[in-house]
Design goal:
single chain; about 325 residues; alpha+beta; Aminopeptidase; 11-stranded mixed sheet
Amino acid sequence: MSQPSSRRGRSSTPLSCTSFPTPEPVEQFVRRVRQPSPSRRQEYALALLDGVPAGHVELSLPILDNLDNLREHIAVRPEFRRRGVGRALHAWALDRARANGRKRLIGQTTDRTPDGPAFAVAVGATPGLHDTRSRLDVATADRERLAGLLAEAWRHAAGYRLVTWYGVPPERYIDHVAELDSMFIDEAPSGDLEMEPEKVDAARIRASEENRLARGLDRIHAGMVHEATDRMVAWTTLNGAKSIPTHLWQHITLVHPAHRGHRLGLVVKLENLREALRIRPGLAAIDTWNATSNEHMLAINRAIGFRAVDAWTDWQLTI
């Protein structure tokens, strides 16, 4: 049974084509500040130690749903760690959470460094969801094998047709995309994280896509339409900064439960990869996150050529 892939709310900070994220380019950060998301509000704080920037915290507050939650991202420069910078930033985040009536803080750490998990435990957070980040090395992918995999998947997808687009969905299908998007939190494994389904409509989809384009992001989509009903029943998207043409993030892949079993998830992912290579001929790597428990989608990704890079944990703190 096909399952959705990639957690919503994951950072869209681009990667260089190495094994670990690099800092977000300054121009991309500036675009993000100047073009705030229509569905969440961002707040920022900078920590100075002896007048030198030592760390920062970014808060993401949903404003349309999940109004009890707040996402917190703390980063402290290595040379300033274990000097109280992280705790000071976290204390500010707690104050802002309470001032905004939020009940839960959610943050993320990676297994590549013990500092993050140790800090999460120290402030009283508990692990809510374990994730795997996987990478497709596009430059060395076996294109002939992928073409054969796609041809075989299409043999199971009789009665469906492909639609691809860039940015805002075609008007004919935008309500269908909104319906699929609304299903995401219910369908994707969430572990012990407390999140409610999002109520997505065409206006929200349109505003979100226009916002991302204004921030200088490529949004490459593919969907599968059930020919008998002319409804879009599967959807996937790739996302990445125009300023880094070598890298993309694989975000949502979702198949409507009534249409699973036809390899639609595999078809849309491979067709969207082909479209991405047309738009970005220099594409070298694609990264994606999946809940570690989502073995079905992880197996699809491995079949395409994705390989696990590192493990991540979403932590939750109730205040």
